Amino acid sequence: MLNMRNYDRARNCRQVAVSEDGGLTWKDQRFDAALIEPTCQAAIRRYRWPDKNRRGVILFSNPANTDARRNMTVRASFDDGETWPVSRVLHRGPGAYSDLAVLANGQIACLYEAGSASPYEAIVFASFPLASL
User: Per-residue pLDDT for 9 more than 90?
Assistant: First the structure.
């Protein structure tokens, strides 16, 4: 799955495309209305692959707002990015670029830009369990 910025300001959300051959070709490019944003870098990370006992999990972080870089949010999908049913707001104020990792203890880590007047005042590290989404 390729999750990308969208520069069509008539639709303030991410675009997604999928590949079935390891990225040689892409198809089904679409807007994902659940992943709102004001055109910004985002992060996507697989938390775990599905197996016979557990669903797979993909994580996504971005400033979830249609008009401004604010409301830094982490979401989870349990169906390979078709839906994003759970989320957690990390910072309601200004926020911009973010990155995600899965720590050795299973915690989710998010490193992101945030501030009170501008999204570029500080770099913030947050860690939390998947269950907190």
Answer: no
